[in-house]
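Fill in residues.
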């Protein structure tokens, strides 16, 4: 054995034998190293993060911790749990106007989920429990979720807590299951419901249903102590539900409109065909996805004799199929299932199984394994080329950082491919790649994408042109939720031109933001001028969304003299359109 191999084997042994407190310390440092860079400098993102943050800010300002409102409208889509956590973070930090204060909740959720996964791995994989937690912590999807003030990180934590308790009950003998594990299951369900409604119970319920149907045995469920657990669950959820239902029609809007709309059709144009989540996992679980796919096949082969494999499959397959069949799709929806991918990737199942005695099933499986390798390669190219290509399209200022990020991805791709059959080394490569790549990307690159952060530029424009904070900001056309977070609860995003004219009539200190078409961008790619114009035309806001002419006409009819003070151009990434946002106010108003 040469020196390099000795070093690798020594590192592998240290990872395997790390004590619990040292393992938790390593996981904590890794999560913080990935989650904190960029948390202050990346502007608030549209649309979910801005909505959650603004609604939480209004909860702090109003002191009403029952009703949830976004500007003037009730937001009865999700329960209040995440808003309570956001307001707690605001009270602890004292910064209600800074988005990082709300993002700290997601950082805490990711850290808690990784800790819980380590504890679960000590039960499911005691020979190397640190590996699944490391694999999940370095997952690109989890790093992204840690930087967004949404429900996803805390939802993942509740799912991990619930599945941990469920695994203790399922894998333990009925008489030896602790009361804490049984009641912890119901507490996890209750907290999950308060954070994001039915998703935590749905995943737990599908896991239980799959195990019971496969084994044709439900007797082990008695160890969950439902006679004690169900009243505890009701006690956790019912008080707030009764309070909100007495003031609003929360159940109809949350379940009847929001949840069922996602099940029945593509909500807010977030539609994709079945199989999209599986294809996206090649990028969002890079570079360990091929190992996870081969682990899935091995777990399926061992499902009869291995109860751990059975539990992981029951957690993953029914819920994943349900998410794939639902018309509404966003990448983070399947995040509660990524802990299973982490287990599958590192449980020593690195060789594709031979099913059916080497027949057509084995050959088909070999083909799918080759396809996952292709997806892995495409993702690797994306990580290497993506930052550099974006620098060409969005500005050269951050090209050095982009080149370094691409080189890091290239080194990780080479090392990951060479070590793809060594699970410990592969996880260490993934963690090393994450520690270098994501902080560089999120702290040095993403915050500098000025064309991308249009709301930040608009807010800076208003601050630059106004001597005092506007009494009221009415935005027409450009109505992204980030505008509300930037200007506060007195922002008006509804009512259109008529509301803008009315605001100017009632309050001379009001300002109006008008969406219009931007100037044609310069040709940035080696294509013909005609092709470039055709492409950029499809990326320009449509004529029906251009409100400037109508606003000037109605203002003149109302006897108002208005003038354009300044304007900013940029990309509205929520709609995939380039827009121009102009700042208007009355001519007789002092700046």
């Amino acid at each position: 054995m040469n020196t390099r191999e000795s070093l690798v084997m020594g590192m592998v042994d240290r990872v395997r034998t790390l004590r619990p407190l040292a393992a938790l310390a390593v996981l904590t440092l890794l999560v913080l190293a990935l989650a904190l860079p960029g948390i202050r400098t990346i502007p608030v993102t549209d649309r979910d993060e801005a909505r959650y943050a603004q609604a939480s800010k209004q909860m702090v300002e109003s002191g009403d911790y029952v009703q949830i409102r976004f500007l003037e409208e009730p937001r009865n889509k999700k329960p209040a749990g995440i808003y309570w956590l956001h307001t707690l973070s605001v009270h602890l930090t004292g910064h209600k106007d800074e988005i990082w204060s709300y993002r700290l909740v997601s950082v805490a959720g990711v850290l808690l989920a990784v800790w819980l996964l380590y504890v679960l791995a000590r039960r499911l994989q005691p020979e190397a429990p640190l590996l699944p937690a490391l694999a999940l912590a370095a997952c690109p999807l989890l790093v992204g979720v840690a930087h967004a003030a949404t429900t996803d990180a805390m939802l993942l934590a509740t799912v991990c807590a619930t599945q941990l308790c469920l695994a203790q009950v399922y894998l333990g003998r009925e008489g030896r299951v602790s009361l804490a594990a049984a009641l912890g299951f119901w507490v996890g369900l209750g907290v999950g419901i308060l954070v994001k409604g039915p998703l935590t119970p749905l995943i737990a319920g599908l896991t239980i249903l799959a195990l019971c149907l496969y084994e044709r045995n439900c007797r082990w469920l008695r160890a969950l102590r439902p006679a004690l657990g169900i009243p505890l669950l009701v006690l956790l959820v019912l008080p707030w539900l009764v309070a909100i239902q007495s003031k609003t029609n929360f159940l109809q809007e949350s379940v009847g409109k929001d949840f069922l709309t996602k099940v029945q059709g593509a909500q807010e144009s977030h539609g994709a065909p079945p199989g999209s989540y599986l294809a996206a996992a090649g990028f969002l679980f890079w570079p360990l996805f091929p190992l996870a796919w081969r682990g899935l096949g091995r777990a399926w082969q061992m499902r009869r004799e291995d109860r751990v494999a059975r539990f992981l499959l029951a957690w993953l397959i029914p819920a994943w199929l349900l998410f794939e069949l639902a018309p509404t799709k966003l990448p983070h929806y399947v995040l509660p299932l990524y802990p299973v991918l982490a287990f599958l990737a590192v449980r020593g199942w690195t060789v594709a199984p031979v099913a059916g005695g080497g027949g057509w099933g084995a050959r088909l499986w070999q083909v799918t394994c080759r396809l996952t390798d292709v997806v892995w390669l495409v993702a690797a190219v994306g990580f290497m080329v993506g930052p550099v290509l974006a620098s060409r399209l969005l500005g050269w200022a951050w090209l050095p950082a982009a080149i370094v990020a691409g080189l890091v991805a290239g080194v990780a791709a080479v090392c990951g491919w060479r070590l793809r059959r060594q699970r410990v080394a592969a996880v260490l490569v993934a963690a090393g790649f994450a520690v270098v790549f994501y902080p560089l990307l999120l702290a040095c690159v993403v915050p500098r994408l000025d064309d991308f952060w249009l709301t930040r530029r608009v807010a800076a424009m208003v601050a630059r042109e106004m001597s005092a904070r506007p009494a009221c900001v009415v935005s027409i056309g450009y109505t992204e939720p980030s505008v509300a977070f930037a200007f506060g609860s007195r922002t008006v995003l509804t009512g259109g031109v008529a509301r803008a004219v009315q605001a100017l009539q009632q309050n001379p200190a009001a300002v109006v933001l008008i969406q219009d078409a931007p100037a044609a961008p310069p040709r940035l790619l080696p294509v013909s001028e005609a092709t470039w114009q055709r492409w950029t035309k499809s990326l320009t806001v449509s004529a029906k969304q251009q409100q400037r002419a109508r606003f000037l006409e109605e203002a003149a009819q109302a006897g108002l003299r208005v003038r354009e003070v300044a304007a900013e151009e940029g990309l509205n990434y929520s709609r995939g359109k380039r827009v121009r946002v102009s700042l208007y106010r009355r001519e007789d108003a002092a700046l």
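The two ends are 75 Å apart (CA to CA).
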